[in-house]
């Protein structure tokens, strides 16, 4: 199975066909998202100025993005001043090579990793493997996914689709721990024993970044387990990969996000581990620090006036947890390391709206708006979805759908034609109507009647009723 | 008040009883209802399916028809949300600032039926009588775009004879989503099956909502399952009296 990346192998509908029928996953996901949803609402309700902080967060990100190139240059300067090195990667392949080259220079066979979706975006593990370097995931859930040769299905909780019993079996097999039960404490201990040994011996660590502060060259990672802290402090060399949109101009900007992120993601007032580091310091922590700045389609997203709000995302995953489509279809249906509502707008844009499978993602939403309500940086996801649906049609030739839609538009822009259309529909439906109901519709409409009836067009439309009433008066 | 009715294309074609009920209700409350037969559709389906230029054409037609109205009322949260929220966006995307201004101005006088009654007119008791056990599904666009809040529930609580049963997980989408239900029918069905499970758990005779689009979806499932629970638009409940039953 793919280790990540953002290119879906299938359309959403095809991928979802498989995942919808996974009853274990449906149950795991339904329970997990419901729990997180309720907890998040409580955590958010504690702050009377939540809406203000959301607005502030969105404004900081918009301002940072408006002067992105300046902030990135300042960041580069600050990191270098603090003793770090900065690398620029145009795309995934360049980023993979930069990381591999640094690791190879230190002649290592293994690197340890802090949970990072950006490294999954560039398929770093596979890239390093090609150079004979094995990357070990140290986030518990990422480790589970890696050991199972599975793919993450959630931004924050990559193994959300797995339950305890499945994890027990996996650890028994892959970590060689016999007599393991499915008690969370035992499972965590098994992983801890395996990981501690790695923390103490592996010389190179790779991380992502939640934020990077331009004025001081400080990188920030927030996490729950402390395994990230181990990776960030114990090895000799630290390589951090970040999307260029993660830069914040000032230290004080982190205040808003350190409130928004934990409450939106894990429903905590503060996350257990918050690590900040600026370059290197003699005798303390890694003695070599590399910051890799990744574009991989982001500047193209930035160039789009409507789509660019997607880059405000702080990867909290609140939109996934409230999304009714995500809850049923699961993360794997999106075919990208960015699933759920944010993935449905981010993935196709990062691929330049050129990937046919990714372009089905903006349609994988009922536009119910739950994601927009939950988003801590006020990304109007429904608006962007609708906008991208339009964008995905650009340059597309005529097909059955477009002919049908254009014909309907012709009927709908003139009342006489509209009235005629109603009459035609009434006649045309004839063969399909049974007792005032349609049980089977043809062609692309058949998906509807596979599970639902359709009301028949009645003998009199509203406008006919009105006309009749006016005459009688 | 002179109220222009925007019936919506779906109601016009498939649910004329909802239109009749809306007319009867507003007239009973002492208003003059007008129906401009030049109206057609708001263009939501086209915009939401990616047909932007076609949507703009339909939108232009809508604005031409209703621009001079004093107030426009529609028995659909979704269509009103399209007009109020998405018309200005669509015009902006098309770079048409004049159209955008016209859309913003018109959006201020277009109302969904229940928000119009409760929030605009300040009425909760419309004198309705409906002696049935009913559960209410808040439709997504009315709830999250228009923020109608509990306006529909306030109206329902004042209906004589009606037993209102709370719907579990009411705020969850039913899975319709317009062409979503055509393009992703299986995911849509998965959402619908949960919604139906919750509706049936209330043991209601009828499930009501302010949108016939969502009700067509929910009702399509209820009918296929021979569930014995029927979909009823809110307007039809509010228009019903001892003398005249709408649904």
List the helices and strands and how they pair.
The complex is a heterodimer of chains A (473) and B (247).
Chain A: H1 12-20, H2 23-45, H3 50-66, H4 68-81, E1 85-89, H5 92-105, E2 110-113, H6 117-121, H7 124-129, E3 134-137, H8 140-147, H9 164-174, H10 184-201, E4 204-207, E5 211-213, E6 218-223, H11 227-233, E7 237-243, E8 247-248, H12 254-265, E9 273-278, E10 288-294, H13 298-303, H14 318-322, H15 324-329, H16 340-350, H17 370-374, H18 381-393, H19 400-412, H20 415-428, E11 433-434, E12 437-438, H21 446-449, E13 454-455, H22 462-472
Parallel strand pairs in A: 1-10, 2-3, 2-4, 4-7, 5-8, 7-10
Antiparallel strand pairs in A: 5-6, 6-9, 11-12, 12-13
Helix pairs in contact in A: 3-12, 9-10, 16-18, 19-20
Chain B: E1 2-5, H1 9-14, H2 16-28, E2 32-34, H3 44-48, H4 52-66, E3 71-74, H5 77-93, H6 97-107, E4 110-112, H7 113-120, E5 133-136, H8 140-145, H9 151-157, E6 163-165, H10 180-183, H11 185-201, E7 206-209, H12 212-224, E8 230-233, H13 234-239
Parallel strand pairs in B: 1-2, 1-3, 3-4, 5-6, 5-7, 7-8
Helix pairs in contact in B: 4-5, 5-6, 7-9, 11-12
Task: Describe this protein with a few key phrases.
heterodimer; A: 473 residues; alpha/beta; Rossmann fold; 6-stranded parallel β-sheet; 4-stranded mixed β-sheet; 22 helices; 13 strands; globular; B: 247 residues; 2 domains; 4-stranded parallel β-sheet; 8 strands
Describe the fold and architecture.
The complex is a heterodimer of chains A (473) and B (247). Chain A has 473 residues and is an alpha/beta fold. Among the domains of chain A are: 48-299, Rossmann fold (3-Layer(aba) Sandwich); 400-472, no CATH class. Chain A has helices spanning 12-20, 23-45, 50-66, 68-81, 92-105, 117-121, 124-129, 140-147, 164-174, 184-201, 227-233, 254-265, 298-303, 318-322, 324-329, 340-350, 370-374, 381-393, 400-412, 415-428, 446-449, 462-472, and strands spanning 85-89, 110-113, 134-137, 204-207, 211-213, 218-223, 237-243, 247-248, 273-278, 288-294, 433-434, 437-438, 454-455. In chain A, the strands form 3 sheets. Chain A has a 6-stranded parallel beta sheet, sandwiched between helices. A 4-stranded mixed beta sheet of chain A has the order 8-5-6-9. Chain A has a 3-stranded antiparallel beta sheet with strand order 11-12-13, with no helix packed on it. In chain A, α16 (340-350) runs parallel beside α18 and α19 (400-412) packs across α20 (415-428). Chain B is an alpha/beta fold and 247 residues long. Helices cover 52% and strands 12% of the residues of chain B. Chain B has 13 helices and 8 strands. In chain B, the strands form 2 sheets. Chain B has a 4-stranded parallel beta sheet with strand order 2-1-3-4, sandwiched between helices. A 4-stranded parallel beta sheet of chain B has the order 6-5-7-8, sandwiched between helices. The longest helix of chain B is centred in the middle third of the chain and has 17 residues, at 77-93. The two termini of chain B are 27 Å apart. The mean pLDDT of chain B is 97. Chains A and B meet through α1, α15, α17, α18 and α19 of A and α1, α2, α3, α4 and α5 of B.
């Amino acid at each position: 199975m793919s280790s990540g990346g953002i290119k879906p192998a299938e359309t959403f509908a095809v991928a979802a066909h498989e995942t919808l029928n996974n009853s274990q996953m449906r149950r795991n996901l339904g329970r997990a998202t419901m729990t997180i949803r309720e907890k998040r609402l409580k955590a958010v309700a504690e702050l009377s100025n939540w809406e203000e902080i959301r607005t502030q967060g969105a404004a900081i990100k918009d301002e940072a993005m408006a002067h992105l190139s300046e902030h990135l240059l300042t960041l580069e300067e600050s990191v270098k001043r603090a003793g770090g090195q900065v690398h620029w990667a145009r795309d995934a392949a360049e980023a993979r090579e930069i990381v591999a080259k640094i690791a190879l220079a230190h002649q290592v066979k293994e690197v340890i990793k802090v949970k990072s979706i950006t490294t999954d975006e560039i398929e770093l593990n596979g890239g390093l493997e090609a150079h004979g370097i094995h990357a070990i995931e140290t986030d518990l859930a990422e480790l589970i996914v890696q050991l199972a040769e599975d793919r993450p299905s959630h931004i924050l909780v990559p193994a959300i689709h797995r339950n305890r019993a499945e994890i027990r079996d996996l650890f028994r097999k892959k970590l060689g721990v016999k007599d393991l039960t499915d008690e969370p404490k035992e499972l965590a201990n098994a992983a801890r024993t395996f990981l501690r040994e790695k923390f103490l011996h592996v010389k190179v660590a790779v991380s992502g970044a939640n934020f990077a502060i331009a004025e001081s060259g400080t990188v920030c990672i927030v996490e729950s387990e402390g395994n990230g802290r181990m990776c960030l402090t114990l090895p000799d060399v630290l390589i951090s990969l970040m999307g260029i949109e993660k830069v914040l101009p000032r230290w004080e900007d982190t205040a808003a996000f350190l409130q928004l992120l934990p409450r939106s993601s894990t429903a905590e007032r503060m996350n257990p581990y918050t690590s900040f580091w600026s370059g290197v310091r003699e005798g303390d922590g890694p003695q070599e620090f590399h910051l890799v700045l990744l574009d991989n389609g982001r500047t193209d997203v930035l160039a789009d006036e409507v789509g660019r709000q997607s880059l405000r995302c702080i990867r909290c995953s609140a939109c996934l947890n409230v999304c009714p489509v995500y809850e049923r279809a699961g993360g794997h249906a999106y075919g990208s390391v960015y699933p759920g509502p944010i993935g449905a707008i981010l993935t196709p844009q990062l691929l330049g709206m050129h990937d046919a499978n990714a372009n089905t993602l903006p349609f994988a939403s009922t536009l119910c708006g739950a994601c927009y309500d939950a988003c801590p940086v006020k990304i109007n996801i429904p608006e962007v979805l609708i906008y991208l649906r339009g964008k995905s049609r650009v340059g597309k030739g005529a097909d059955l759908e477009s002919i049908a839609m254009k014909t309907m538009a012709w009927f709908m822009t003139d009342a006489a034609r509209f009235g005629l259309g109603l009459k035609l529909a009434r006649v045309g439906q004839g063969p399909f109507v049974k007792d005032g109901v349609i049980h089977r519709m043809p062609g692309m409409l058949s998906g509807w009647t596979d599970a639902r009836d359709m009301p028949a067009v009645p003998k009199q439309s509203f406008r006919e009723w009105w006309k009749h009433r006016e005459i009688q008066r | 008040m002179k109220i222009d009715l925007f019936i919506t294309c779906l109601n016009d074609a498939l649910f004329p009883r909802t239109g009749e009920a809306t007319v009867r209700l507003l007239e009973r409350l002492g208003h003059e209802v007008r129906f401009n037969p030049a109206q057609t559709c708001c263009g939501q389906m086209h915009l939401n399916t990616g047909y932007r230029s076609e949507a703009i054409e339909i939108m232009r037609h809508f604005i031409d028809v209703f621009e001079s109205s004093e107030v426009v009322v529609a028995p659909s949260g979704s269509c009103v949300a399209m007009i109020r929220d998405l018309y200005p966006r669509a015009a902006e995307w098309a770079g048409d600032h004049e159209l955008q201004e016209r859309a913003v101005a018109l959006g201020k006088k277009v109302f969904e039926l229940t928000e119009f009654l409760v929030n605009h007119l300040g009425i909760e008791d419309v004198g309705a009588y409906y002696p049935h056990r009913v559960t209410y599904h808040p439709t997504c666009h009315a709830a999250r775009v228009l923020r109608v809040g509990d306006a529909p529930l306030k109206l329902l609580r004042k209906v004589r004879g009606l037993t209102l049963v709370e719907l579990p997980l009411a705020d969850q989408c039913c899975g319709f989503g317009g062409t979503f239900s055509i393009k992703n029918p299986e995911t849509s069905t998965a959402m619908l099956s949960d919604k139906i499970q919750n509706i049936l758990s209330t043991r209601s005779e009828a499930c009501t909502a302010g949108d016939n689009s969502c009700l067509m979806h929910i009702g399509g499932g209820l009918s296929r399952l021979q569930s014995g629970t029927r979909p009823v638009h809110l307007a039809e409940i509010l228009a019903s009296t001892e003398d005249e039953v709408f649904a």
